[in-house]
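Usage example:
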Amino acid sequence: MDTEKIISLKNVCMYFGGIKAIDDVTFDIDKGRLFGIIGPNGAGKTTIFNVITGMYIPTSGEIYYRDQQLNRLMPHTITGNGIARTFQNIRLFEDQTVLDNLKIANFSHTKYGLLDVFLQSRKFKQEEERIEETSMEILKFLKLERLANKRAGSLPYGEQRRVEIARALSCNPEVLLLDEPAAGMNPAEIRDLNQLILNIRDHYDLTIMVVEHQMRLVMEICEEILVLNFGKKLAIGQPEQLKTNPVVLEAYLGKTS
Amino acid sequence: MNTFVQQIINFLQLGSIYALCALSFTMVYGVARLVNFAHGSIFGVSMYVLFFASTYLFNVIESTWLVYVISLVISCIVTSLIALLLERVAYTPLRNAPKVAVVVSSVGAGMVIEYLILNIAGSKALRMPSLIPNIKFDLLGVSVPLYKFMIIIIAIITMVVLNIVIKKTKLGIAMRAVSQDRVAAGFMGIQTSKVVSASFVFGAIIAAVAASLYGTAYSIFAYDVGESIIWWSFIAAVLGGIGSINGAVLGGYIIGAISVLAPIILPVSSYKDIVAFAVLIIVLLVKPTGLLGKKGIEKI
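Running the assembly step on the lines above writes:
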């Protein structure tokens, strides 16, 4: 088994004034892992995503993507390097079609200039075709191809979530960060989503991080789970180990006497 | 019949100039969500650059067309650089400040530029050399000067090119993405700060084209030429739905129509301002986002 580390956080802290959103968190993620982050509301789960993807600069500590330190890079650079994400409260480009949403994410990889557009050069047409093809491929894989020309904002909630995953895949990432992908879904939909996340990981050969409330999703598919509480690392391990971990049980179910 | 054709042409000419001005104003708002009141001064700068460049070039080059093209290019470059400087100095440092601070900063920056023009070029009104050959031709029995046609044609070409850039190019699609959700666009690999700078450059270039048409149509101008232009383009942009490209064009032509029609129908020509503002107020009462504007979605 390949155990190359792809994401590492070393003593990362993120303070907002007096609030310690993340407090001295350290962990590594192996390449190809399905890695879950759980914890009660306000535990700092999304903040971990935000410091990895460059939305916030951590107060202290270091974040590595392979050997590259991410701490001070801009979000677009980090995405360009191979880390893509979705959002807790869906942030699609609502006025654009589903296909255009994917194309936007794909554009940072295109190579043509302004002149090519006006001359309708071969380079332009080839690149356009290539983008359209890769975008449609991703949509097909997520069974969304029939929605390609629908306005993103007009879709029902569950489909918007899947379009967001498709859009993140269009960034051509190595690491995919899913922020509460199962929010607002019923048990049947969660079962489908679980299967989808596994398929995506295998098909695109990704490392996936999932932040989730739904224990069912995390416990069923994640191979390693980080438990946070009030910004602190409570435990890390395989789902089976955590189910019997007294510290975790205490945080979730209250103190047992 | 004669007056009718003449008024139609006057309406198209005036509407085209307003449409371009509103378009240049709405570019920055559309992408950066920032009301750029310094934009009138940018317009003023391009008038002066155009004046000095063309006055000089007429001594060297004979072809009027060539003078027009070269001085327009110079004016585009200078105004773009000033717009970029403006962004760097007056807006970027205030990125995280309250919106009011940015608006005040833009008004201040506009005044700085305007008074710099006053100090450098003086307060005397100037006459723009005619940049389009003085030819007249016949349309439905009316003798129409070529420049009126050129104003309409150049404005339409500019709008079509802008539409292609926004709809088809990488940069244009990035602009639309940033305009809808700047944060998400960044996470999709788009370098948002560059896209915002590009919107300032676009605004400046369109303003320079508009200035060349305004100069051709009215020729006399002074250091404060941008002041009334900025108000009318702001009104046109808000009327059509600020941030919306088609809205700015529509708003521009509506203001143009009012300016041409009102003096014909109403007894006093200055009533046109009253009509324009009344239309603006009525439209905003019925549709607060403007004719083609969309409701802004604020999400964090």
